[in-house]
Specification:
Layout (H helix, E strand, L loop, with lengths): L1 H24 L4 E3 L2 E4 L3 E3 L3 E3 L3 E4 L3 E3 L2 E2 L3 E4 L3 E3 L4 E3 L2 E4 L3 E3 L4 E3 L2 E4 L3 E5 L2 E5 L5 H27 L1 H13 L1 H28 L4 H38 L6 H23 L6 H28 L23
Parallel strand pairs: 1-4, 2-5, 3-6, 4-7, 5-8, 6-9, 7-10, 8-11, 9-12, 10-13, 11-14
Antiparallel strand pairs: 15-16
């Protein structure tokens, strides 16, 4: 009798503790289907069970509850909390996986890494990191860009020597006006092209013209940019030749000289960039200066090309050519 009474007392003391522990472990889950999000972060709460997949693109995913059919995260991070329970395959592209103690996950994890992802003004964009090889790739890219630009400038000099001279004189005479016009053209070109395309597409008759307008506008814009850049390089080379007392007359030599002066800081920055880390501050300073100079040349050249109608007419009087006096016979 005494033993039975003791057993009853112990059972009455242990039962509430076990019941409360079981109650604390039991969670009522709110069932949801697939969770799909683009450009925003997603959080699966502790009392939520996703019965399908969780897919997040250009955002991060935090899981505290259950996911029953895999996870895909592109351009963001994945965090598995201490109460998370994930079943199925995990695919993580360009982000990081953090997992707290107690997180439960069954299935394979596929991690695809090709750069770090960071948020900015225009959402999530990849920031590629190739280690020391990245400096050589930057140098190679700059050299390729310079080579292509040099070929285009040579073609412009061959087919449009007179327009190059007119644009160069306009840029030298009114650089501020050319800069303002060129900057406005750079800002409003794409919106204007989109608006014109929409206006043509509204009418049935204008739909075929959209396919003609867009490529022609892009080609003309590229021609104006290269024409203006070539004109300023040529004008700068002629100015240097005049200061050095060289005999002018060859437009190709003058353009090449101006081309080297314009791109000198950028090329020097790329060359110094492959040097040891102690030179990186100087390389960055030169790169900023070089890109600023290039932006000014592109913008002023574009404005001067537009002012002169792509070099078709003069905005300043042409230079006066002094003819030598004829020799008189004695």
């Amino acid at each position: 009798m005494r033993r039975a009474l003791l057993t009853f007392v112990l059972a009455s003391l242990v039962s509430p503790v076990s019941l409360s522990a079981q109650t604390a472990d039991v969670t009522t889950y709110k069932l949801t289907g697939a969770r799909i999000a683009i450009g925003q972060d997603v959080r699966v709460e502790r009392d939520e069970e996703v019965t399908n997949s969780a897919v997040v693109i250009l955002g991060s995913l935090s899981v505290e509850g259950r996911v029953r059919d895999g996870i895909v995260v592109v351009g963001g991070d994945l965090h598995l909390g201490p109460t998370s329970d994930v079943r199925g395959e995990i695919v993580l592209v360009g982000g990081r996986l953090t997992r707290d103690a107690g997180a439960h996950q069954v299935g394979s994890i596929n991690y695809v890494s090709f750069g770090e992802w960071s948020g900015g003004l225009f959402g999530w964009v990849p920031r590629f990191n190739f280690g020391g090889m990245g400096r050589w790739l930057s140098l190679a890219g700059t050299l390729a860009r310079v080579s292509v630009l040099a070929v285009l400038m040579g073609m412009i000099l061959i087919v449009a020597r007179a327009p190059v001279a007119r644009v160069g004189r306009a840029a030298a005479a009114e650089p501020l006006r050319a800069f303002v016009i060129g900057l406005a053209a750079e800002i409003f070109f794409v919106p204007f092209l989109i608006a014109a395309s929409i206006a043509l597409a509204i009418t049935i008759v204008g739909i075929p013209f959209v396919a003609i307008l867009v490529p022609i506008a892009i080609v003309m814009a590229l021609f104006a940019l290269v024409l203006g850049y070539t004109a300023i390089a040529c004008r700068l080379g002629e100015w240097v030749e005049d200061r050095l007392g060289w005999q002018p007359g060859n437009a190709f030599i003058a353009t090449a000289l101006g081309f080297v002066l314009i791109l000198g800081p950028t090329l020097a920055a790329r060359l110094i960039g492959v040097a040891p880390e102690s030179f990186q501050i100087g390389a960055f300073t030169l790169l900023v200066a070089g890109l600023t100079i290039e932006f000014l040349v592109w913008t002023i050249g574009l404005g001067a090309a537009l002012i002169t109608g792509l070099g078709r007419w003069h905005t300043v009087p042409p230079p006066i050519v002094v003819q030598p006096a004829p020799l008189t016979a004695l």
